Amino acid sequence: MEPQAPVLIRVRALLDEPPGGELDALIELVGRRVRAVRDRRMRGEVLRTCLEESDDAAVVALLERIYQGSVAGRPVHRELMQELALDSGLLRDLGYDRITDLYEVAHWASLPAVTRMFMGDRHRGNPTAAEAMDDNEHLELSAGERRSLARGKDRYSLDRILHDRDPRVIAVFLDNPRATERDVIRIAAMRPTKPEILRGLARHRRWATRYRVRLALACNPYTPLPISTQLVPTLMLQDLRELVSGLPVSPELRETARAAIDARMASRSQAAPPLAEPPAAPSPGPEPDDG
After folding, report:
1. Nearest Cα to 258, choosing from 277, 243, 276, 280?
2. Where are the domains of the chain?
3. What's the DSSP call for residue 220?
4. Is-contact 40 85, C-beta < 8 A?
5. What is the model's pTM?
6. 3-state DSSP call for residue 271?
7. Helices marked H in the chain — which ranges?
8. pLDDT per residue over 34-84, tens digit each?
9. What is the pLDDT of residues 109-152, one digit of tens each?
């Protein structure tokens, strides 16, 4: 059902404001409140509270501006977009009725990037046997024994824990101080895998902000779609191009990456200084006197 016209008018008015208007002030306030929290787990709560305190039009306009600013490479916008992407429950916690209303506002305002943020995980059908298993083909041990190894120091065992299909085992491993970024990238890129493992990794305060981890999550077809699509605008241009042309990703993710490329190129074009005017031709001198 189409939302009331005043809501759509307010969304457009906020987005059409000149720099320094109400929407920019709101983004500055939200960014300041989020950055003031050092515990990353609490940052999502702060951002969710800010969204709860804003009306529907302001939330939709805020998300659109954050998305576009992130694509353009603005630090505050990219940081907020990253928080939205890596806390998959942040928007869902607004409640079903509010999400439905926000989805309708974004849809009728013709803001596809924001509309996608309110879409649920795409149904993947029944899991394959490999996806359904909670075992580890490299370690024939119980889940409790594998969790104990995931806390340990033995590199041989830790290398085999990376292949575990039990989200609880991987969660323990991610907290192990001996886990390396290379290990975590392997987990983020693993396929087939359980979406729960990738969702847990996306929320991890130590690893989720690492660029190569975010890239691996965005490229993995088992990552829940709301996470991967919201990670797209935080990626560098060369990686966006890979998503469009060089990687087997979902049509939704490819279209999101293509839109991000177009927006970023348009932003760069607008930021480019105008070409210098060619020097004016010298004015002709006085006509020679025939007399």
Report:
1. 243
2. 5-117, 129-267
3. -
4. no
5. 0.68
6. helix
7. 5-15, 22-35, 40-52, 56-71, 75-86, 96-108, 112-117, 129-132, 143-150, 155-161, 167-174, 181-189, 195-202, 211-219, 225-231, 237-245, 251-271
8. 889 877 678 888 898 999 999 999 999 999 999 888 888 788 898 888 888
9. 999 888 888 876 544 555 565 566 778 887 888 989 999 999 99
